[in-house]
Records
---
Amino acid sequence: MSTEPTSTEHAGQGHASRATYWMVALILGIVTLLEVAVFYVPLLHAVIVPMLLVLSAFKFALVAAFFMHLKYDKPVLSMVFAIGLLVAVFIILALYLLFHVLARTPPAA
Amino acid sequence: MTAHATTYGIPHRKMAMWVFIGSECMFFGSLIATYLAYEGRSLTGPYPSEILNIPVTSVSTFVLLMSSLAMVLALDAVQRADRRQSALWLLGVMLLGATFLGFQVFEFTHFYGEGLSLEQNLFGATFFVLTGFHGAHVTVGVIWMTTLLVLLLLGKLPPERSLDVEVAGLYWHFVDVVWIVIFTVVYLIQ
């Protein structure tokens, strides 16, 4: 039986540089500021939901790709993550649809 | 520590952590779905718009994001066998995580003082369950980081065992991405 690759061997598969990590953190900070700004600007309230969802998804992707190393790791790990994520999104959309779109009448008191 | 490689050449513990993270996605997905399903259905206050403090939570969000930076720098330092930097960054993760928990304790105490509790209304029930479970995950992460720091200081965390830090890091970053979603869905989209 083969032995597990040592951590350092495994980790050496093209992880990002420290400069990249700092850059990602800077971008995450700026995007968070942008999110809060969007919340406080009345002019943007008409498009606040899609804007915030896009910004949030961007931050999520940055952390997953660079800090969690999915960009550099084997694709099977991204698939394992994506399956759980897809089920989660499905649950959220299904319940939202059931409670806010299909439920035409308010629940009985 | 040696173990057996998976068919994909990925250490078992790392693969196991990713499978766990996949299941955690479904767990938090269900809690977020429940929050959204009952959003706007509270019959009595306090309501989210009356009680949520965006500036304070923005700061705590920034703190958690920066803890992820400290985590990834700690892993990098352990892999380079730089004990001083490893200890510094692991301590940073611990302190930033504890600071985030401090913000959450402040928030929960304040909300309870304002009359929001688990039984008060649907907002209170879903909000406390969702953010409470997230806080519990952060607490576990802080304890995990503390054990790693102790191991490092005892000289039991050489570069060959950096997988221990990498797996803990995956957990920590996941807790961070969950908060990214919670911050947007609960706090900013009201």
---
Amino acid sequence: MDLNYTPEDVAFRKHVRAWLEQNLPRAEIKTLEDRRAWHRKLYEAGYLGMGWPKEYGGGGARPMEQAIVADEMARANAPAPTNSLGIGIVGPTIVVHGTDAQKRRYLKKILTAEELWCQLYSEPNAGSDLAALRSSAEDKGDHFVVNGQKIWTSGGSIADWGLLLARSNPGVAKHKGITCFLINMRQPGIDVRPLKQITGSSEFSEVFMTNARVEKSDQIGALGEGWAIAQTTLGYERGGRALARITTYATQYSRLVEAARRLKRHGHPLIDNPVVRQKLGRIWAELEVERYGALRVLTMLERGEHPGAGGSLTKLSYSEFEKRFLELALEILGPYGQLTEGQPEEYRLQIDTAVGDHGTWAYAFLWSRAGTIYAGSSEIQKNVIGERILGLPKETRADRVGGAR
Amino acid sequence: MNFSFSEDQTLLRNSVRSALDEHCKPAHVRAMMDDPKGYGEAVWGEMAKLGWLGLPFPEPQGGAGLGLVELALVLEELGRAAYPGPYFASVALGGLGLLLGGSAAQKEKWLPAIASGKARSTAALLEEALDWDPASTTATAAKTGDGWKLSGLKRFVPWAHVADFVLVPARAPEGLSLFVVDPKAPGVTIRPMVGIDLASRWSEMRLDGVVVKTDALVGAPGAAGALLDSLLRRAAVMTSAEMLGAARRCLDMSVDYAKVREQFGQPIGSFQAIRHRCAEMLLEVENAHSAVYYAAWALNAGAEDAALAASICKSYVSDAARKVCGDAIQVHGGIGFTWEYDLHLYFKRAKALEPLYGDAEFHRELIVRHQSAHA
């Protein structure tokens, strides 16, 4: 046990920090093209697709190096690159399950953001019960025809391609009839409608597929293997954001403490109020415990071990923490915390929002509600923990018997 | 960066666990609950033989020369076994206290004796008002010709009734000071205070003009504040390790029980109400593990954030252990409320430790103060 960073990691961090100081965009990123340019700059510097194998254009970097880059970007309040699903999920899926032709055709363009990707998984009636999805893929000999509706597609409005789960065989048990495809989003059969969320923004879309075409060469893995492939892609979380997440919380926490020094109750600064101090002390302890947990995950990844179902513990822990943290922030900030416009400088989430995204407490607060729902709700994570880590018996479920319909 | 146990640490943990599985079964814990002394000499002798009693002391003083991560590992296992006896008091209070601030002569006299199991020790860190801040000490040390005369009332002194010496903070004319006191000396009255955890023992310790020689002083007169802060931090983290062990035992028992106990025709662990509770318990236990071993490492390495990490650890683990051990009773239902079933041994151990060396609230305040100091 040695919780100091190695000299190599310290030097690497210094190097990344210096690079960011030199290269951060000076002006606000307004258009998709601005963002692509920033993305390419990061890629050329070797800071994107770092964990991908070198032969596919990646950096072959260690998990700690990836975590450090993301962490330094959070510290510098750097704009996010684009194509995060392409790099985080689609690419790794193609690397593991794709054919050589698929790898040659798609991988490099994912890294360079030449082609942007989305993930077509959830449906209106297939959320936590993803395997209940009903979008169909019908074999027409030389291609597939796809019909159905997808929802919660992040980046759907800008995506060129999508990683699709569709039912290719309705006659077998529901987990066995699903196949994984790559689908061109730029075709007449695809209708993307932005989904306006409680944030007022539209990071997600609904996607309607009407007689959309998928080439035979764009099937990933074997027919009926889609569910198994999806299970592995959900496990591709490599701890890349493990440290960055904590740094973002810590930055927000210091802003909160600064605000608590200015705000008053009964004539005294809020920071002197014992009740507020207890709440701040508790949330800081929880935040640090999240950081310790991130270091444990990175230790495993560095040794080439995969956290497996342990990833459910990590996700459950930080997503629930984030909700508690932002609830507290809004409690301390009162109505300042709810401002979407006209925030006084002292009560802003970030000191400098020139290049960062969505610099309001209100947005962070509302967004925190998503974390315990997407990528497996907290309830699903607890099922996974109960069944796969603790070995508790599965519940009796009606859908484990019979076909999909 | 490596947040995992080394091979040696894992071996140590395994050997401690198997020794306790053999020598400290629940039947032993129950026997000691009724024992006047409260601990078994045979197990104590075994601990000495295995080198646990001198674990953090230097080798020349009969110790194993190991650090606080290893000590936390042993204490976690002791908590998991609800071990009845003065291990924590002797090694982590009296022993670490002298290790931190004792003179060469004090260390030479006591550390080998503790390590060999011949002597037991403890520290009297609490008074009537239950303020863990060492600065709140009201006991007094008056100067005499060749020493000091101590007076005051200490409470909740762990295992004082079997101790060969007690570290006693008292206020001297020079300020807060620390003394080595023989609990059998004239003027000392030890009276048992019996709590819900019958497998751990507390005493009230009254000092009525107790005379000690100059050589009883630990460190310089008036200079005990920093030493006591350090000792309190170590005690807080080490006691968290013991709570973690008790909580892990409660979780393991709950999961095992949920697999076999059937209601409505199926194992109760198949119901989400139970399964989700168990998942939450595991999350708390794993987070508590992170908090304990991070803090133990930080204190041992003298890391910049060691004091903060100690407070984070004790505040987090106190809450986590309360939740996990309480939930364990709920998962078990009626049987968890019976004397005969062993669950309450671990539930009570965690509960007894929860307020000690600063409760969660005390340490949360320290966390915020620490931040203000570094803002």
---
Amino acid sequence: MQVSMTVNGEQVTREIEGRLLLVHFLRDELRLTGTHWGCDTSNCGTCVAWLDGEPVKTCTVLAAMAGGHEVRTVEGLEQDGVLDPVQEGFMQCHGLQCGFCTPGMLMTCRALLDRDPDPSEATIREAISGQICRCTGYTSIVRSVQWAAAKERETALHTQTETVGSAS
Amino acid sequence: MTVTQERPGVVEDSDDMDHADNDHHPVGYGRMLRKEDPRFIRGLGQYCDDVQLPGMLHLAILRAPLAHARIVSIDISAAEAHPKVRLVVTGAMLAEKGLAWMPTLSGDVQAVLATDKVRFQGQEVAFVVAEDRYSARDALELIDVDYEPLPVVIDVRTALAPDAPLIRDDLEGKTDNHCFDWETGDKDATEAVFAAADVVTVQDMVYPRVHPAPMETCGAVADVDRVSGKLTLWSTTQAPHAHRTLYAIVAGLPEHKIRVISPDIGGGFGNKVPIYPGYVCAIVGSLLIHKPVKWMEDRSENLVSTGFARDYIMRGEIAATKEGKILAIRTHVLADHGAFNGTAAPVKYPAGFFGVFTGSYDIDAAYCQMTAVYTNKAPGGVAYACSFRITEAVYLVERLVDCLAYDLEMDPVALRRRNLIQPEQFPYTSKTGWVYDSGEYERALDLTLEMAGYDELRREQAEKRERGELMGIGLSFFTEAVGAGPRKDMDILGLGMADGCELRVHPTGKAVVRLSVQSQGQGHETTFAQIVAEEIGIPPEDIDVVHGDTDNTPFGLGTYGSRSTPVSGAAAALVARKVRDKARIIASGMLEVSVADLDWVKGSFHVKGDPGRSVTIQDIAMRAHGAADLPEGIEGGLEAQICYNPENLTYPFGAYLCVVDIDPGTAVVKVRRFIAVDDCGTRINPMIIEGQVHGGLADGVGMALMEMISFDENGTCLSGSFMDYLIPTALEVPHWETGHTVTPSPHHPIGAKGVGESATVGSPPAVVNAVIDALKPYGVRHADMPLTPSRVWDAMRGQATPPI
């Protein structure tokens, strides 16, 4: 069957088998290998990407189900050569070690900050609780998200000040 | 060297990250962001499954549905007829080529594909190579295997019964399921001490089978060049050089025609040390059809068939005076090694380094007797960040000490403090012959207690007990032996455990360092650049670290057992010093003074008494490659290589304290706090050390409370997915509180000891001790891991039973 969708802002169309999972579509068909394949049972979250702005586990979504929708993967986080604050936060706070769970964590955490710009530690832990990291013990991931949230608030404040300044 | 030997203990992380060592010096040790991260946070890591070659085919493995069964027949005709299938191979076909069996890392053999019978559920029976991964899986369904079921051996306690079914009838003359016996210590001396002791505490305990379950499963891409015959193998291996040599031995391929590449690895934890049949199948597939072949196992295959860990049933005995002086420790262990002895441990150490079961205590005598057996379970044994079985040893002794404290009605802190080895006793030779290099144990213990607010916690606990609330405080004190190892004692299949390192400084003063170890997330590209930078004064940003590629790195045994820093880290420091020595001679020529008149100030040589006259390492590098004359006898270029043979192991240690709350209505255990003070000697990058500790603590909480690979009576694995094999998420673990002391290793060139497994080793007994402490009002002295709500509930009702 033919499937078309938008992936990281680009329209893609491919001939696929109906049973093809979105994770394999992204990895094998589009060569977007940042989205990982970890468990097949929606437990580990290494395969998390966005479907219409919501994080989903792409190992349990058929590529066909994404037809006509918008997908965003970790490769789409960096915009015009500028890292997303969540990406920066993970680097600054050692939120990753082997890097395998990282793309899924980044996508979930980006979505979290989009709906809650100042999440508590408990909120962050809850948000990533559908994903497993074997390396970090999670504390540094929590810090990474807090770092990104703080940076975004600071940037927002700065932008606001600038806007006020230019208006006067 | 920035060794801070006299530095007092440091509390870090009580509120936030450790910035104490956050230096922005141009070179050397300190908190430095990782060089690996820019690719990982963009999703641009290159893991095994990301390797895509032109014309690449996909391999899938048919696995045994039964734990013990004779293969009557295999019909592959329907699979071969599948339009997208290119190759189907059975054990019989491999046997014709002499490839049906391969050696394990412990000198046993393991079937690549079963020929005669299957010996564990999940064993490899046949493989298919097809045009895509889904078709390969489809074709597995078309293979028809006729099995004749055989009785199974699942309970390790019955494996040596006279009527037990024989598992290893492939071994000539084998009549039982005995794998090996091993003992250490002095049996008679220990017996004498026990006979005279005031108090003897005995406790049986089980360390259940668990699994490392790295987020990336195991896999490989094999590509045999049909013209040159050269094999390139990308594989999820923690030991690329050792694997290459073994492939040369197994497959008879010339070693120079094998290139093993260990790309980015999505976590190892010991799971990726053994050679798995899947790697060999991928090689065979590529050899037979002259195309690149990829094999990636799925999560179930990873959990069911690859290297497990632990599976020890232990009887621990501890003898003491009634005042709490520990006199002797004795243990008997029954070890379940599964169907093949796939343990990866030095040859002379079939039980790994379990011999350090005397822990951190100064005692008079010790003895251990171990029997290992075969069962119808997956092979493996040493995995999951265990420091070659020190995890089991530390659990044994730390649980025993708490049992003794229970019997003596002593505070577990006071009991430990009374028995810790004292600083002046180092180097300390244990009663099982291990030479502990350095330690200042009480300093670490004191820091832990201070950070935890121990007395206040005990007061809170007393108040809560009055109200019927269950709060527990658990302590553990561990000493590890890492950095295997001295080649006179330690080898794996005859390969000495020394590590090579090469350093080349380019004309412009940038450098490349080539390591024999590789990284599964430990950050070698950063820390090894820092080690070299500290020695030679070139900024770490200017040093490229090459690893994980046998064609481009010197020989060495790989990354496991926390050996990278103790062994390869030493090699990196020494090779840099070798280059610096040459640089000094060249500098003496440039400055026209004798070498004795030069001072090294990180990054440059200065003339003594005239510091204005100096040359930088970058100046020297250019001179070394330039046209001008060099001092007599000095060749051009600025590079060196070394093979470091460690004089001894290193002995990191730490004191951990865990606080738990248990809901008396549901028996759910909540880890409220965890305080970890580690001493890994000289600290290279505190950020990375903290990360290593955090990860290990989560592992420990997982093993103590959640994780277990279990089987039914037929040998069917009941933990074959992440729905059944539970791993902690962010909700099950607390915000870690870490601190450190620094006691450098006296024999290591930079005093570093290794830290990768410390927390996995040290944390399980702290968690279990805390749970048992919480259950004191119920008169519980011991309950086995995993302390799930149902098992805690049973313990509260006096019905604690072993998990197996």
---
Amino acid sequence: MNIWALLILPLASAVIITLLTRKNKDLSSYISIGAVVACFAIVAPYILKMFGDPHMHPEEQAFIWLDIPGLMVEIGTLIDPLSIVMLTVVTFVGSLIHIYSRGYMHGEEGFSRFFACLSLFIFAMIGIVISNNFIMTFIFWELVGLASYLLIGYYYQKPSAADAAKKAFIVNRVGDFGFVLGIIVIFYATGTVNFAEVARHIAAGEVSNGTLGLASLLIFCGAVGKSAQFPLHVWLPDAMEGPTPVSALIHAATMVAAGVYMLARTGFLFAAAPAGAMEVIAYTGGITALMAALLAFGQTDIKRIIAYSTLSSLGYMVMAVGVGGTNAGMFYLMTHAFFKALLFLGAGSVIHACHTNDIWEMGKLYPKLKITAVTFILGSLAMMGIFPFSGFWSKDEVLTSAFTSGHTLLFIMGVFTAFLTAVFMTKLLIVTFFGEKRYHGHPHESPSLMTIPLIILSIFAVIAGVVGIPGVEPSFGDFMPSFGEGHGEHHFNYFVAVTSTIAVFIGIFVGWLIYSKKAIDNKQLAANWSGLYAALVNRFYIDHFYDTVLVKGIYNQIARISNYIEVYIIINFIINGSAYLTRQTGKALRLTISGQLQHYALAMVGGVLVIMMMYVIL
Amino acid sequence: MTITHYLILSLLLFSIGVAGVLLRRNTIIVLMSLELIFNSVNISLAAFSYFLQSLNGTVFVIFNITVAAAEVAIGLAIVVSVYRSRKTVNVEELDEMRY
């Protein structure tokens, strides 16, 4: 099967739905689901091929898109184990979420628009994954941003959704600015934008250390925006305004992981970059992970809690890349895609049943929503990283790479994050599914169109870690090209595994004590630590800071000056001024039109006389 | 008889014509004055044609007379129709096209 079909099918689906079948909701959704399932069918043989031959040779196909002297840009595909893993995640999780959406979005206005946007997103995401050069990556990078904008703002009548969409788009733009500069630096240094070519130039030592450091940090800016790392993380929790399947697909499983994927794809750059640049990346990830895990406590919205856990997981992945464990990061990305999509879809199912997002208006849902609850619990266990769920193996790899590369501080931050994650996930489970009844109405289990994807995802959330279990062949590490000096392989480290497991169990125990046994009163706790609690509820005042300093302080001042220039100088002076001048001139000249034929004739004769006089005198 | 005599005659006729156009109130008189201007030009053209021994001027005179005949026909028709609608041919009273 031609690899280009991966791009053409979803794009065609988006175009067909938009132009032709928008009126027919069922047909639209079938087209969209068909396109993404077909993509998965195209990817499937590659997965088998990869399992058969872990060190498969990268397949590259390209045609020239732009060829001007000094710059050649291709549109090309690069199929290697890295992109196959990501394609699997995108098309497989994407297929399940498309099917789920048919149930979840049932009866919504703009049902067809939703599926058109999803198809557009799948097109753009596949474009990023199979791209073989920086420019193409950037183009599709912006396209996923567009799809994300459209889907966050799906309920565009709601001001909060419209604002969240704008916020996501604008915050991403900040990161993308760095990305563009990074591409320019790389092009300037190597004269090409093709990944393999750039890698060859760097391996040949043609690029100076300083340039490499600058380029890698600028490229990392793009990942900071897209993967919502501190300090540009503010858009992701707000992005939960979009429909839940969107949160699952775009803001948990795939798009936000695109930043990490891009870091892995350009791993040759980071492997060669000076250590200082890598430290920045690792600590950015570590801080994001820890901060997001703390912030999850201040939230009562089920989707926002999961959103902060996503931020925290993304921090983990970036930290893994930063300490040199690109494999670990990608492995975590894959397992995270399964269990986080599962958690979001489960949350969607709960919201579908209760018609609220507030976990304090749920409680004791387990008897009502058995399938959702069981799958949600499996997802949570995977998320916390309990042996032998998938999250255990991947989190363990991340922590091991932090530990063995000598970043003890990051390791401690990681373990503490795992502890916090366990506490708030326990809280989420107990408050939502157990404890006393606080819901209204009669919640009922979602239709099978929604529960079947949940069940399939939960199976993968449990077993996806298998490929990362030490000793099982072929292991995940085999698929990944190892960059740099042998950072690729990590051996199972009992100290790390035991430490993180203990941390997680303490976390679960603490969560159980507070929220189930109520040995510690959580209200009392909040009162005792009121300062910290207020900070958590207000998201450490980071959004507040952006609002006050950047938006009100700088942005609004610029807006005011621009407004002044527009209103007073351009409109009042230039436009209205010239109109006024013309009108007054006209008024004055009108007086000469007397309607008297002889006045005109006199003017003509006078004029001729004047010209004659001038001719005579001069 | 030198060309100067003819030109002085032409100039006199022209001046009378211009004065008539500028000063007379009756549209028909104004049209007649215009004819005077035409003919003053025709006289100078004919005089030059004769003195320069060239037929160009004569040809122009013929043209002018033809065109003037057509113009008078149209002009008088307009005057008649104006008179029918306004009951006047006084140019001072025909001042609708003003600010």
